[in-house]
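Reviewer has doubts. Consider these tokens.
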Amino acid sequence: MACVTHMLRSPESPTLAETLDLALQHSLYLHHRASMRAAEVQIENAAKAMFAMQSYDVLMALFTADMEEAASEKDERNRDIILAAIAAILAARLDRDVQTLRPGLVAALSAAVVNAALSKYGVAGDLRQIDAESYLRLHGAELVKDLNTFSRQRLAKMLADGLASGDSFDTIATRIMASFDEMNMARALKIARTEASKAWAYAELESARRMEEAGFVMVKEWLLGPLHAVMDPCDANHEAGAIPLHRPFPSGDMATPQHPNCGCSVITYPASGQPQPWGATIGGLPLYPPPGFDQGDEV
């Protein structure tokens, strides 16, 4: 499966290969979005709920902080006292936030497994085939950590700006109350799309790894999203073509997404020109190449 330059970057008329490549990217992107849509909505709603709960806890921390002590010190001390209270309440939320996000992540990973590498060769997948528990436990905690960092940074800027302007603590607290919830809409949608993409890539690579265990020589390829009109590290990843499964792409990423809202996809398949053990079984089911798809000779 040759890799070609994305036609949106070519100043000349696209070749037939480029046109077919774009059509493949577009069809895979639509399939990806359709398969993951329900999980994306679930993650988005969970992120909104999590932000709302974080907002409530942060506002409670503001109201219960010792404002008289804070007001008696210098501005830097004021900010440190309030941020310490906010950081403490966000840290205490970690386990609850992971549990809030977990159902959506499970749904995304489940949908991804069903549509991952093995399904192309006649083997239906489910979460039992990959290390789903480890993924959910580690990745859920990492996601929450990032979100809490985002929350603290945003609040820190609001506090610093308010103190620099000489605003009272009541004014700063009122401004936070009015604006903190605003971050849960677009941010939640970005989280949903990014996390669904991560789940898809994880399932694809894990399915390919199982095929390696069965004796296949696997490669992976980075396909640009059809609406990917701005050049960034994704282009270099795409132009690298088919690379070994365990080699990072030029950007250093092992798989998509390369950035938030990345619409690219990673696909895996047996390397062409290599003897492959077609007919080998995974989960009791034999693997056969799709009709007309050249993926190398049988062993």
Notes: Residues 237 and 253 are 9 Å apart (CA to CA). The chain has one domain: 7-286. Residues 7-286 form one domain. Helices lie at 16-64, 67-71, 75-92, 94-114, 132-164, 169-179, 186-213, 233-239.
